[in-house]
Input
Amino acid sequence: MSIKLIENRIIEIRGQKVILDYHLADLYEVDLKILLQAVQRNIDRFPKDFMFKLSLYEFHEIRDSDSEKTWGGRRKPPNAFTEQGIAMLSSVLNSKRAIRMNIEIMRAFVRYRKMLINDPGLLKKLNELEENYASHDKQIQSILRTIRLLLSTDTTGKRLIGFGRNND
Output
């Protein structure tokens, strides 16, 4: 299997590079149910920084943007495995295919990281995006504070909307 195919399966969620459980099952050529059972039997090996379940919002965003449309009838959000979680999978799945695939996945993560490090323009653009997002985040927080203030009530149960004089 080509590293390019593996790299295409690496996505960013919550600021982390991850591969989703159904893609890993496909890469390891095991049934998704078997992969999830192996993880559940060894759940103490997968702390939150190794594996986490997507929120419903994240699940719908990814499902709607997925060009492969390989979701079938899945209703529950998938698990996302970080690089460390994928390394831990090699101790849970002991087939020769899983071991070989794990080595290739680790190589893909390393190559992906080198690509980011060696491209200063890309790093600059990422920093700019982060700065832009931070300013939008402050604007959104300000709007939410204003809405909360408008919807708040005083001790008499009256809404504090509009202009008026303080009766203190």
